[in-house]
UniProtKB/TrEMBL annotation:
Pfam families: cNMP_binding (PF00027). Gene3D superfamilies: Jelly Rolls. It comes from Epilithonimonas lactis. This is Cyclic nucleotide-binding protein. Residues 29-113 form the Cyclic nucleotide-binding domain.
Length: 189
């Protein structure tokens, strides 16, 4: 729980009583590889903080192809925040790509924290802005680079992920086929 506390305190000041209150609203869950944290077609039920493991955000395009658009690893929040807050049906899947351990907040508990702690919304807004900026920063270079450069950029920015997740997910994230990724990997060795 220290990881969660340290993460939150980067974005605002809280006293020990407020921290204890937030921590009292968490539940620890485990996801097995391939389990869903949130599913398209369902209303997201929780916000999570990843203690161990990696999840991916993905969807199916109009051709039925699975597209991975980003990964989230340890010491980060994970949620379909917009749909969670509005309590509307999600369009993305959030899937564990490794076994995961998370601290989760239910909608009721998340709202209770927001209604109890003055300044909580400002903290969570900064957290969400940070998550969005990280996502944009990770995706932006991928648009203009060739496949080999995209892969090299991926392994440079995510050295801890490259050996932990399926190559099919990496290929999907990079917007290439798994065969193309295999050729690229073979050529750069």
């Amino acid at each position: 729980m220290k990881e969660l506390t340290n993460y939150i305190l980067q974005f605002g000041n809280l006293n020990q009583q407020q921290i204890d209150f937030i921590l009292s609203k968490t539940t620890e869950i485990n996801l097995r590889k391939d389990d869903y944290f949130s599913e398209a077609g369902k209303i997201p039920k929780q916000v999570g903080f990843i203690l161990e493991g990696v999840v991916r955000f993905c969807y199916y395009n109009n051709k039925g192809q699975e597209i991975t658009h980003h990964f989230v690893d340890e010491k980060n929040f994970v949620s379909d925040q917009q749909n969670f807050e509005a309590q509307i049906v999600a369009t993305d899947y959030i899937e564990a790509v490794t076994d995961c351990k998370l601290l989760v907040f239910s909608k009721k508990d998340w709202d209770e924290i927001g209604n109890t702690i003055v300044g909580w919304h400002a903290i969570t807004n900064l957290i969400m802005k940070n998550c969005l900026l990280k996502t944009i920063e990770r995706r932006s270079p991928l648009v203009s680079e060739d496949a080999t450069t995209r892969y090299l950029t991926f392994i440079e920015k995510f050295p801890a992920l490259v050996n932990r997740i399926s190559l099919s997910y990496v290929a999907s994230y990079l917007g290439i086929t798994q065969q193309s990724l295999s050729r690229i990997r073979k050529n750069i060795r």
